[in-house]
Amino acid sequence: MEIILDFWYLLPIATCIATIAMASGVGGAIFFSPLFILVLGLDAQVAIGTALLTELFGFSSGLVAYMRSKLIDFNMGRDILKYSIPAAIVGSLGSSYLPPDYLKALFGIGILYIGFQMYKTYLQEKKHSILHRFIKVENHSSLLIDSKNREYRYTYCNKPNARFFGFIGGAFVGLISVGLGELMDYHLVSKCKVPTPVAVATAVFCVVVTVLIASSGHFYEFFFHSEDRVVFQVVNVVIFTIPGVLIGGQLGPRLQKVLPEAYLKVGLSTLFLFIGFLMLSIVVFN
Hints:
By secondary structure, the chain is mainly α. Helix content is 78%, strand content 3%. A hairpin with a 5-residue loop joins strand 1 and strand 2. The longest helix is centred in the middle third of the chain and has 34 residues, at 100-133.
């Protein structure tokens, strides 16, 4: 198989995307899927599978960094995984039966919803930030001490809601490659007030395991039932995106420690809304 270097520019792009994804807990596939569809012209299912493969390597790199920092709440993560993994399997199997335009439309709607929820969360936190400074909540059910001996006290609240978001997020990961990390961040940070470093690290853990399961179906389709042309496309893309996300996976956790969370949420929500509208516009006017 001939390797071409035309996609060299994906290396720095993938590094930037993975850095942002690791810092926020947002799945990198939310950027890679539209990039592969709109810029590279890949079919929707091929683009989603390639995005999942790329995301898997990036999140695995970030997972190692967060494990070293001891910021992952494995008990909370395992509880969500019991619901996200079966849903991801069903979503992955069902994606091959949906027409490409349906996948694009579903992706656009999913990103719009996530962008709206993220901006809504920012407004709620801004509104109540002054009040929260003077409210000290006692009797937290969880205590996590990171590698630098910093204590994080919080409560894993409303577990039925968290499990529902895990199920829906897992299904979306299987179908359109995004959703789980974003919904987890929304519930844990906005509803449960889990400290952002713990919420992001735990979301990364859940996404890695869920994406690994969801990706297996796409990988099987790629390498055993796809045309040589499709395999050629995927290989020539991931030889640049995978090294990029491995680098970004190490940079993201460091950025998360210094980047103001409010600015990150506003910027990401604006970008998600733009991408969502763009994807839907392409489906409608194509």
